[in-house]
Sequence to fold (151 residues):
Amino acid sequence: METDGCKLHEALPCRCGCPRIRPGPLSRKVISMSYPKKLSPEFSGALRTFSFWVANGTLGYPLLEGVDYRSCLGDEPSMLEMAYAIFANVLELDEQGVPVNAKYAEHRAAQYIRQYCDPGYQARPAFEDWEQELYGPPDRDDSKPWPAGVA
Fold:
């Protein structure tokens, strides 16, 4: 059954509010997925690598080649906040917590930075609300006690 809804989210329950009629083939897996208590080494590697590329100016090569986005960071830290939000919101993990689309998540974050720094550039596809959602931080107090002797 076809819908005129979101083509980006055919395999998942759509987060953008489009009029989906049928769930995609992975929806049961996503709903029943058990989440790991710690992030996987592969996720840690994806986040570390993304951060390294942001810091050294090579994120999203070749899309950001020649774009000095690092000069904006001191004056406009919200650009970096949104780039990380997009990376985190777009990134998908398999049942073991291993990223399955880290390069695409990086590309979407790079598109945002390019669009922010270059008024003539428009990301394709356009960003959806769920990609740019800024979620609140965790509680200020950890529910897990810190190790003894650490303060």
